[in-house]
Design a protein that fits this description.
The protein has 335 residues and is an alpha/beta fold. It folds into two domains: 252 residues, P-loop containing nucleotide triphosphate hydrolases (Rossmann fold, 3-Layer(aba) Sandwich); 68 residues, no CATH class. Helices cover 33% and strands 22% of the residues. It is built from 13 helices and twelve strands. An eight-stranded mixed β-sheet has the order 6-7-8-3-9-10-12-11, sandwiched between helices. The protein is globular and about 65 Å long. The relative contact order is 0.14. It binds adenosine-5'-diphosphate and magnesium ion. Magnesium ion binds next to helix 1. The site of adenosine-5'-diphosphate (ADP) has 14 residues, from helix 1.
Length: 335
């Protein structure tokens, strides 16, 4: 892809975020590295609890502390390592240059302020717009995200809007300062299927129009297939596979990725034969020395339990699996 010829806009290196609870202490994000290129859409996919949200929060310095803390790694953006940036520097980046759509739309809008006030707040804070200019820009933004009668809607409170409309408002707030990077954490998960498709269309259209780089976080590979150029598959805090979307869909190399793909509905909407991967994401506080996926893996052999395989890179593809060569058979043959 042509974007790859340029320098990355965001470079994450060995990012490691520790969570401490009363009973355990673990790396919710474990040595995660990736580049995001200008104009690129990168999908981060994995089941619930794999560390996707924690990765996004770590990038922006928003890990709740306690229980969380970044213990290693770097996040390079515009010549600066955000992990080492001051809170003041981070505040200038957050929302303005790197915007985030949070996983829970209801908890991210403040119920006691109108949506107009909430958009204007962002504009006044980052762009230093006056009251009137902020209001005009807020109307433009609401129109851009497809909210009907935007001028009247400015005076609505969040509870007066449907889930889909609230998510459009969240997108408007995220786009208010023309960010270079948008981190969208499960932006459609809370919505019903028809509205999900509309919001995804909207994000796709805005991404193309504004040329933003987007990280789309989802547990749904269908969304990745539709929207992303490249994908990182996360499992239990680690990246276990990375590649161009076509390559991953054509020949998934990690048994976990294969399981996720097999769970996708086919064209007729039937859930794949292998449907869900057996078992569940492990308790992060109680990981053994071996591959984190081994307890659920159909290809497991004794050596898999001895050491966690590193992410091995070949060109644009990377996979962390000792059995990858076997697993990377074309999808039809292994399914
Ligand atoms: N505030 C928190 N306190 C304790 N553990 C947390 C907290 N937030 C997330 N976790 C744990 O961190 C791990 C990663 O969570 P998260 O990043 O939210 O996963 P995902 O977004 O992939 O569903 C999980 O084991 C989750 O239980
Ligand atoms: Mg999450």
């Amino acid at each position: 892809m042509s974007a790859r010829e340029r320098d990355p806009i965001l470079s994450v290196r060995g990012l490691t975020t520790e969570l401490r609870t009363e009973s355990s202490r673990f790396h919710a994000v474990d040595a995660v590295s990736f580049d995001l290129f200008p104009g690129e859409v990168l999908g981060i996919v994995g089941e619930s609890g794999c560390g996707k949200s924690m990765t996004a929060l770590s990038i922006l310095g928003l890990v709740p502390r306690p229980p969380g803390r970044i213990v290693a790694g770097e996040v390079w953006f515009e010549g600066r390592d955000l992990v080492r940036a001051s809170e003041r520097e981070l505040q200038r980046v957050r929302g303005a240059k790197i915007a985030m759509i949070f996983q829970e739309p209801m908890s991210s809008l403040n119920p006691v302020f109108t949506i107009g006030e909430q958009i204007a707040e962002t504009l006044r804070h980052h762009e230093r717009l006056g009251r009137r200019a902020a209001r005009e820009r807020a109307v433009e933004l609401l129109a851009k995200v497809g909210i009907p009668s935007p001028a009247e809607r400015l005076d609505s409170y969040p509870h007066e809007l449907s889930g889909g409309m609230r998510q459009r408002v969240m997108i408007a707030i995220a786009l208010a300062c023309n960010p270079k990077v948008l981190l969208a954490d499960e932006p459609t998960t809370a919505l019903d299927v028809t509205i999900q498709a509309q919001i995804l269309d909207l994000l796709q259209r805005l991404q193309a129009e504004l040329g933003m780089a987007v990280v789309i976080i989802t547990h749904d590979l269908g969304i990745v297939a539709e929207f992303a150029h490249r994908v990182l598959v996360m499992y239990a805090g680690r990246v276990i596979e990375e590649g161009a979307v076509e390559a991953i869909f054509e020949s998934p190399a990690h048994p976990y990725t294969r399981g996720l793909l097999a769970s996708l509905p086919d064209l007729e909407g039937e859930i794949g034969r292998l449907s869900a991967i057996p078992g569940s994401v492990p308790q992060m506080g109680a990981l053994g020395p071996g591959c984190r996926f081994a307890p659920r893996c159909g290809l497991v052999e004794p050596a898999c339990l001895a050491a966690d395989p590193p992410l091995a890179r070949t060109g644009a593809r990377a996979v962390a699996c000792r059995r990858a060569a076997l697993a990377a058979a074309p999808r039809e043959r292994v399914a």
